[in-house]
Amino acid sequence: DGFSLFQSLRACRNQVAKAAASGNENIQPPPLAYKKWGLQDIDTIIDHASIGIMTLSPFDQMKTASNIGGFNAAIKNSPPAMSQYITVGS
Predict the structure, then answer these.
(1) Where are the transmembrane segments (predicted)?
(2) pLDDT digits (tens, 9 = 90+) for 31-53
(3) Which of 85, 84, 86 is nearest to 54 (CA)?
(4) How many whole angstroms separate alpha carbon 81 and alpha carbon 56?
(5) How far apart are CA 78 and CA 63, in angstroms?
């Protein structure tokens, strides 16, 4: 989650600034929460790139909703956003 990473980095920056102002060299970093993702069925990863955030087209959103919820499925006004990654390996 980018927002929680941003908050953690900002807290670290503030602690470094406070330590520098007080002359203290002992800094306790705040805990960093993260989610580790893994790729299955890949032996060697050569390169990995994030190509950004994308949203589904309205057609894809309706198709997915009808497959999951049936004929009377409802969809949200805004399509969900997701991150896309490209990984090269063997």
Answers:
(1) none
(2) 777 777 777 788 888 898 989 88
(3) 84
(4) 7
(5) 15
What pLDDT was estimated at residue 1?
Answer: 59
Q: Are 86 and 48 in contact (CB under 8 A)?
A: yes
Note if the pTM is more than 0.90. no
**Residue 62 above 80 pLDDT?**
yes
Token reading at 50: 């994030």
Cβ atoms within 10 Å of 10's Cβ, excluding its own: 11
Give the C-alpha separation, 54 to 41, whole Å: 25
> Distance between CA 68 and CA 60 in Å, rounded?
12
Is residue 63 classed as helix, strand or coil in its secondary structure? Answer: helix
**How far is it, in rounded angstroms, from Cα 49 to Cα 83?**
11
Tell me the Ramachandran region of residue 63: left when phi exceeds 0, alpha when psi lies from -120 to 50, beta otherwise.
Answer: alpha
